[in-house]
Structure formats: structure tokens, C-alpha cells
Amino acid sequence: MIAFKNRAALFAAVACPFVSFVAFADLSGSYTVPLDHDAIRYATAPLHDRITLLEHNLEDGKAKLHYVPDLGYLPSLLGALDLPISSQVLVFSKTSFQAPRISPRTPRALYFNDTTAVGWVKGGDVIEIADVDPRQGVVFYTLDQEEVAHPRIQRRGECLQCHHSGSTLGVPGLLVRSVYPEHSGMPMFQAGSFITDHRSPLKERWGGWYVTGTHGSQLHMGNNEADANGQMDLTAGANITDLKDRFTTISYLSPHSDIVALMTLEHQSRMVNMITRVGYETRMALLEQAGINRSLGEPADHMSDSTQHRIKSMADELVKYMLFANETPLTAEIKGTSNFAAEFTLKGPRDKDGRSLRDFDLKTRMFRYPCSYLIYSEAFDQLPDAALQQIYRRMWEVLSGRDAGKDYEKLTKADRQAVLEILRATKPNVGDYWPVQ
Known about the structure:
By secondary structure, the protein is α+β, with helices and mostly antiparallel strands. The chain has helices at residues 7-25, 50-60, 74-81, 160-163, 259-296, 305-322, 340-346, 378-381, 385-399, 413-426; strands at residues 89-91, 108-112, 116-120, 126-133, 137-144, 153-155, 177-179, 193-195, 209-210, 213-214, 335-336. The strands form 3 sheets. Strands 6-5-4-3-2-1-9 form a 7-stranded antiparallel β-sheet, with helices on both faces. Strand 4 (126-133) and strand 5 (137-144) form a beta hairpin. Helix 1 (7-25) packs antiparallel against helix 5 (259-296), helix 1 (7-25) packs parallel to helix 6 (305-322) and helix 5 runs antiparallel to helix 6. The longest helix has 38 residues, at 259-296. 43% of the residues are buried.
């Protein structure tokens, strides 16, 4: 509850939300959302993510995890969470709390789908899990790799030491980091690093990662080590399709670290973080506005110009990323080495013409229809209505051609029309926000 004895106190309270709005405009800044805010309660609010459901089912005996030698609970956990083996990507930089077991000879394997990511290290003590709760954002867990009658999945708040910072947009989130790795896999911190997504130049991506696939003359940092001066010969790691001469691939569920899976994970990581940030900020803004309304005797649904502007600014940033504004163009065709692209494309809704937001292009850009498939996610749908109204309004302005400004100049008329038609056909509630055509 918020009470104000005078206008000066009220102004001070309004100033705090404005500070977080300014910080939002610089998403790579140092501002981190206070997780104990009454609108968030990250550590104590009930969870409705897939891991919480799985844990309940394990306790009730409705689900079981089976242990196998060498891999532990990994295959069984992937099956329970519907994580495809084709999504495997491999990181050999020592950028996990299991760093002593990670090296170019023993990379860490990651598997993911739209909501969940699992990390496995050969000989590791635990399996790492990150799962998206529709309201709370990414929640972190571990599963002990010791064979027991009743395996338990435990929530791990200490993961926030790395996963709640400016690098994750100030919320508990995911990140794909590109580093300059030494021969051991240890990052050369003095050389710097990059947080990557679909806007990043390829030449800054995947340092410390294995990358299998072809990409023509486009170069990246993957499959490579830095010399003593922090320099890399990027040509040495280009267009690699087989990793068996670098480590024992048969020890892993897949021999691949598919380039298309890596690109998808990069896009998804920031998109998940942005959805979480918009949800957090909107809920905080609305709660603070409610306190101001009570103090001033305003109607409960009153929203000040500053609150509206705060929510609108957040929505604009989300839409910009969701519609792939400022995406780095591809100059040659990208081809992966696993079944990831084919399996990924099969999931999700299609319109009557067979079009889907999960269809890849991979010739000049990432997706054929430039709108994030995470618009279908439960996390997106559970954003506060005040945020959804602004998001859909902004999308309509862009996709209808009313806004053809610089941020969206790469979107052709055909692109805009296709996305509009696909969403009208596959996103049931979009008609609640967009004009009838």
C-alpha cells in the first residue's frame, strides 16, 4: 500500500518509475528490476512453469526420470520436457558454474525449446535447467546427477548472480555470450565479450562455442581459440560440418552444434527477456499508479500521461525486436547440419496457405516472415492488458504501413501483409485489438 501526505512526497514517488523508464530506453544499461517489488515477488510468488508441474508429477508418481550410465538423467529429462536432441548446441568456454569440467575437449551441451533450456556437462554433478514461468520470467533449477529412487529438481536462486544483470535486460533471464577463449576454454576477459542476438554481426558471434554448418564467406568466432594477444583467425573456424577431430562426439547425444539452432537460441533469449521486462515494468507501473490514484482520489482506472508513456515506450521496444528491426542481414545462405530446422518448422500454427512464423529463410534473413514465433507463447499472452494494447496498437501501425519509418524500412509491403494475414489466421485474440478488415 502506498500513501502520500503531500504533493512533494507524491512527486518523489512518481520520479522512481520514471527512472526505471529511462533505464529501459538503454536496455544494455546497469538498471536491474527489484525482484522483491510487490508487483513481482520473484522468490515467493507461486510458479506455473513446466518444471514446477514436472516436480509435482514426480512427487505424485505420475512421472518418472530414468538414470542411464554416463548421461545420467539427461535423456529422460529431455523426453519429459519435449526438448529435441536436434536443438543441441555446444559451448566450450568456461562460462558456467561447472567450469572446471568444461573445455574444448569436453564442451557443455545445451538443449532447448520455446520455454525451457537444459545444460549438461560430461561428468557433471548436476543438470542445469532454465524454465520460463509465464508471469515471473526465467526460473533456474538443478537436478542432481546421482542415481536415487526419487530424483528431485531444486530451485537455485544463486544462478541470479549471472542471470540477473544488465546483460539480461535487468530481469532474471537468458543470455548467449561470445568470448575470446584461451586454449583451455577460459575466457580472456581483457579482450572483452559480446551478448549476441539476431542484431549482432556474425563476426561477433559464437566465440567459445562449436558451430556446425555452412555460411559462405560470412565469418564468426566459433570453433576457434584466441592467441596470447586475443586475436583470432576467423577463417579457421568457418564452414565446419564435423567436430569429431576436436572432441569425442560419441559421448554426446548428437555430434552437432547446429548453426541454425544457435541463431534461434540467440533470438529467443533476448525475446524472452524482453517479454519478462515489459511484464515486470508494466505491473510495477500499474501498482504505483494505483497507489497514486488512491492518494489523490482519482478513479481506479485512471492512468497518468507518464504511466501511459512508460508502458508505451516499453511496448515500442518489444515490437521493434519482435519484428526484427535492425536484424543483421545475411549475405550468403545458412545451412545447419542436424534436423533442427526441419523439426522446429513443423511446430506451431499455420494459416490456410500453409504459412508459419516458424518458417526459416536463412538466405537474406533469419525467418521468412519477420515476426517472432514467441508471440504465441503463454508468457506473451499473460502480459498485462495495458501492455498488450500498446504492443498490438504499435504492431498495427507498422504492419498496416502507417509507420514506414527508418526502424522498419526493411519491411516490404509484402512482408507486412503476410505477417498481418498469418496472425489474423493463427492468433485468435488479435481481432480484439486490430481493426476489422
